[in-house]
Specification:
By secondary structure, the chain is mainly β. The chain has 4 domains: 35-207, Single-stranded right-handed beta-helix, Pectin lyase-like (Pectate Lyase C-like); 273-366, Immunoglobulins (Immunoglobulin-like, Sandwich), CATH 2.60.40.10; 371-502, Single-stranded right-handed beta-helix, Pectin lyase-like (Pectate Lyase C-like, 3 Solenoid), CATH 2.160.20.10; 618-811 and 818-880, no CATH class. The strands form 12 sheets. A 16-stranded mixed beta sheet has the order 32-31-33-36-39-42-45-48-51-54-56-58-60-62-64-67. The chain has a 14-stranded parallel beta sheet with strand order 35-38-41-44-47-50-53-55-57-59-61-63-66-69. Helix 1 (4-28) crosses helix 6 (862-878). The longest helix has 25 residues, at 4-28. The two termini are 19 Å apart.
Length: 880
């Protein structure tokens, strides 16, 4: 992954190059086929292309001519590779050209096509005549009667190769189709009502059916076969597939029983199969008959399997031929069932169609009754049977013996449903993946101790909607779309579950006041834990690691508490707040070793991030377009970037540690009015703090110890590098707050060598951070010779410097330390007195006011700041 800095530096350049490419495209021009439109009168734009032949004459090779609804009298000759397409209700009639075809495709036309025309009442000799190669004639209707006589041929093929005729209706002609010296593929046409269907010359290569077998629906059932044409031929259809059993005139091997509109050709669906018998209630031994039925006629075979646990399957046998019952097919095998012991087992039928698609059905054979209602004492064959029993009342407990259960369970009563032996030995798998495994619509339901699997998109292992006071605990949710999903649900508890290999592990949608604690969510393809539009929930002590996108994700979710979680080794972000997720509290979380961000706030504000650890990520803590957040006492070390603020305002960043990062410790881009204090930015490979087009920030009481403590990109006006002198202690244990401590790994930093004549822990001289001025620390910190008892200087980094520590029980020095009468510093002779506070124009007041919602949506940094952004884009465009 590229570093954040690398991507942002190239951003302006990408915009610049994209703009150039757009201009080049405008002036270059790309040759493409055109659409030409023909109207029976002026089109809506006033153009008057009323003649089909004129459009053909003016077209170029590869163009498409669209003929709009209306009546035309053209006699059209096509000698180019064109597509001639009619809208609905295009009629070509009353053609006065006696003896000529209505449409002619002549050589050298190659791959021309005519589609969608209604040709009727013409004095011409032929409806459509083809002399070109590889032409397509489809979806046309040709009525050969003109009031006085008939067309000689509806369609004529003369010395043409590779022609396709499909879905045409030709009637009231002397000959439906005449052919000479041609090759063609002819299918799904209707040739009824002609004096003769065909007229044949010599040298013909004609195929009278679809080029390949197709899947189609006929009479409500699916089939798979070649399809021919309809001739009004009454034959025998013994298997109900819509194809006559004998060929038509020895040519069409698959003649249709009805017109082509009765055959829906398209993608095949999975066959529907149903096992007929469930052998419940007693031990079965010996040879038994197992059968299944299918509806579709394209099923090629039906195999049967046996499983003791619903997971491992053994072959019973395969039926190669089904018996047609008029409206379905019966498939049958015999099986020696001596393997059955005194427990549940399963039989599955797999019907495979001629396309290779397989549909399955499963039955449970219950030798004993493994589900017990503890309160009523009754035993049941399945969990659902126990729930549905009239003797099962609200508040009852259902105890489930170990084993594999194939059920989609609908929980409609307030019940406790728990396994006897735990999730390792008790599994519930959805036989219908298009439903939730457990679908809960009642309040006060407990689901405990199951391995739950098999729900596909968009369904979940446990699904709760519009319910409250439910508990889901000690379950394993595996290979579902969603592990646990709550929708419109409140006051529920999700604890000590494992959600793995799902799309998302645990998800809340528009749900509040729920507790998610002690869960493990890993190897999910989206997020481990996911909240959308869900407020006032507690997410604590969970492990959300190794997910393909995010560990913990909050979208448009506010006032949640996210604490003491581990969100590590995720492919994108550890903890992610997005889409106005506001007023959240993130504390004591560990978000390390994620591929991109440890903790990421995007367009989210008024949240508190404290005591979190975000290490070994690309970026430790990242705020984008996020304001009024407080970041305190977080650790962001060993990342590429420690703490990054982009287009973010009015944040308080205090007491954080950003050390040993391979790029920058702290980075501000296009960000203003933030306060950074009491932080430690040490041993970062490039810079301690990096500012790019960022203004009016207050940066004080931080400990910088890097080879390069600062770096500035673009214009950064109005930043303050010290606060007014005030009683401390400061970040290194000195008695006063002021500016920052400027150290270096060699021990030669400004604060390490500056003088402090009055021993107030503030330098006697200012520190000009940039050579051109404008960024000045007026009160840089130094290590005083005397530090009050119990305090110590900051120990981050590898710089040198000592503070005299007065141990407990010893006396302080008797001499008084002269205090500076003003908040500045002493200055060497001849230098400007830095003790005076800079004028307000140079050192703006840091604003702590909260912004309105509208202000937060559009961070506005004044006109000057906007101009600096434009300059920044230009800067990055020319950089590199």
């Amino acid at each position: 992954m590229k570093s954040k800095g690398s991507i942002q530096k190239k951003y302006g350049k990408i915009i610049f190059l994209t703009a150039i490419a757009a201009v080049l495209m405008i002036f270059t021009g790309i040759a493409t086929a055109e659409e030409i439109h023909v109207y029976p009168s002026s089109d809506p734009n006033g153009r008057a292309i009323r003649d089909i032949q004129n459009a053909v004459d003016g077209a170029q090779e590869g163009d498409t001519i669209i003929v709009h609804s209306g009546t035309y009298t053209d006699c059209v000759e096509i000698g180019k590779n064109l597509a001639l397409i009619a809208e609905a209700d295009v009629i070509v009639r009353d053609n006065p050209m006696i003896g000529l075809p209505v449409f002619t495709i002549k050589s050298p036309a190659n791959s021309a096509s005519i589609s969608g025309f209604n040709i009727k009442r013409n004095s011409a000799s032929i409806g459509i005549k083809i002399e070109g190669a590889n032409c397509t004639i489809e979806n046309n209707e040709i009525d050969g009667y003109n009031g006085n006589g008939y067309l000689l041929s509806g369609i004529s093929l003369l010395s043409s190769e590779g022609v396709t005729l499909s879905n045409n209706r030709v009637f009231s002609c002397i000959t439906g189709i005449s052919m000479d010296s041609s090759s063609a593929n002819i299918y799904l046409n209707d040739f009824t009502g002609n004096i003769q269907d065909f007229s044949f010359g010599s040298n013909l290569d004609i195929t009278w059916n679809t080029p390949e077998p197709v899947s189609y629906t006929y009479g409500g059932r699916e089939y798979y076969s070649y399809l021919g044409n309809y001739y009004g031929y009454t034959g025998i259809d013994s298997n109900g597939d819509g194809i006559n059993d004998t060929p038509y005139e020895g040519r069409d091997l698959y003649p249709l029983c009805l017109q082509a509109s009765n055959y829906i050709v398209g993608e095949n669906s999975v066959p529907n199969v149903e096992v007929n018998e469930a052998l419940n209630g007693s031990v079965i031994s010996g040879t038994i008959n197992i059968n299944a039925t299918t509806v579709d006629g394209d099923v090629d075979s039906c195999s049967f399997e046996y499983s003791p646990d619903g997971l491992t399957w053994n072959e019973i046998g395969k039926a190669e031929t089904g018996t047609f019952l008029g409206d379905s097919y019966l498939w049958n095998v015999e099986w020696d069932s001596t393997k059955v012991d005194n427990r549940n087992y399963y039989i599955r039928a797999n019907a495979t169609d001629k396309c290779g698609l397989t549909g399955s059905d499963l039955i449970t054979v219950a030798v004993n009754n493994p589900v017990l209602n503890i309160n009523s004492g009754k035993k049941f064959v399945s969990i659902q049977a126990a729930i549905d029993d009239t003797g099962t009342l609200e508040g009852h407990t259902i105890l489930v013996e170990e084993g594999a259960y194939r059920e989609n369970v609908e929980v409609t009563k307030s019940l406790t449903i728990c396994s006897e032996s735990g999730s390792g030995l008790t599994g519930v798998q959805a036989p219908d993946p298009g439903k939730h495994v457990f679908n809960i619509t009642a309040n006060s339901v407990t689901i405990s101790g199951f391995n739950i699997t098999g729900a596909e998109y968009p369904y979940a292992g446990i699904y709760l909607e519009g319910a409250e006071n439910c508990t889901f605990e000690n379950n394993v949710l595996y290979a579902n779309f969603g592990g646990i999903a709550l929708v419109y649900s409140v006051n529920n508890t999700i604890s000590n579950n494992t959600a793995c290999n799902n799309s998302y592990g645990i998800g809340l949608d528009q749900s509040g006041n729920n507790t998610i604690s002690g869960n493990t969510a890993y190897n999910n393809s989206e997020s481990g834990i996911w909240l959308e539009s869900s407020d006032k929930n507690t997410v604590s002590t969970n492990t959300a690691c190794n997910n393909s996108r995010y560990g913990i994700y909050l979208a448009s979710s506010s006032s949640n508490t996210v604490e003491k979680n581990e969100a590590c080794n995720n492919s994108e972000y550890g903890i992610y707040l997005a889409l106005s997720s506001n007023y959240n509290t993130l504390s004591t979380n560990t978000a390390c070793n994620n591929s991109e961000y440890g903790i990421y706030l995007d367009f989210s504000g008024n949240s508190t991030l404290s005591n979190n650890t975000a290490c070994n990520n690309a970026i430790g803590v990242n705020l984008v377009e996020s304001g009024n957040n407080t970041l305190s006492n977080n650790t962001a070390c060993n990342n590429s970037y420690g703490i990054l603020l982009v287009q973010s305002e009015n944040n308080i960043v205090s007491g954080n540690e950003a050390c040993n990062n391979s790029e920058y410790g702290i980075q501000l881009e296009f960000s203003g009015k933030n306060t950074l204090s009491s932080g430690n930015a040490c041993n970062n490979s490039k810079y301690g703090i990096y500012l790019a087009f960022s203004s009016n920030n207050l940066i004080y009481d931080n400990y910088f110890n890097n080879t390069n403590n600062t770096y500035f990109e673009g214009t950064n006006p109005g930043n303050r590098w010290n606060t007014t002198k005030a009683p401390g202690p400061n970040t290194i244990g000195g008695p006063y707050l002021g500016g920052n401590f400027w150290a270096s790994p060699e021990g030669t930093g400004f604060s390490e060598s500056a003088t402090d004549g009055n021993n107030d822990g503030l330098s006697d001289s200012l520190y000009s951070i940039t050579e051109t001025g404008g960024n000045i620390d007026f009160l840089p910190l130094v290590i005083p010779s005397y530090v009050p008892e119990g305090t110590t200087h900051h120990r981050g980094g590898s710089g040198t410097g000592e503070a005299k520590i007065i141990p407990a029980g010893t006396e302080e020095p008797e001499e008084e330390v002269e205090q500076s009468p003003d908040p500045g510093t002493l200055t060497p002779e001849g230098e400007t007195d830095a003790s005076e506070e800079p004028p307000a124009s140079e050192v703006p007041e840091a604003s702590g006011e909260e912004r309105s919602d509208e202000e937060q949506k559009t961070p506005g940094f004044e006109i000057a700041f906007a101009l600096s952004g434009i300059l920044g884009a230009l800067y990055f465009a020319r950089k590199e």
